[in-house]
Amino acid sequence: MINQKDERPNDALGSGSRAFAAAMGSVWVVAGLYGIYRGVSTDPRYLFALSVFAIIYGALWLNTARTGRWGRIPLWP
User: Fold this and answer.
1) Which position among 5, 38, 63, 77 has the lowest Cβ density within 10 Å, counted as fewest Cβ atoms?
2) What's the rounded mean pLDDT across residues 18-47?
């Protein structure tokens, strides 16, 4: 459905929201990569596992920025 005020779909994000999503995604991916480095080079192995989840979360933010729509992950049928 088209919103008459700004002529974009109601579920589409604006450019400011997409920029925010890109920034958040980049921060989470970089933090995850650094966490993997620290988890491999030092003792705490749990840091490696948490970093993988941080990279996945960052990828979801980057996908939101790429598509311009909020991500939909079906957690239940």
Assistant:
1) 77
2) 91
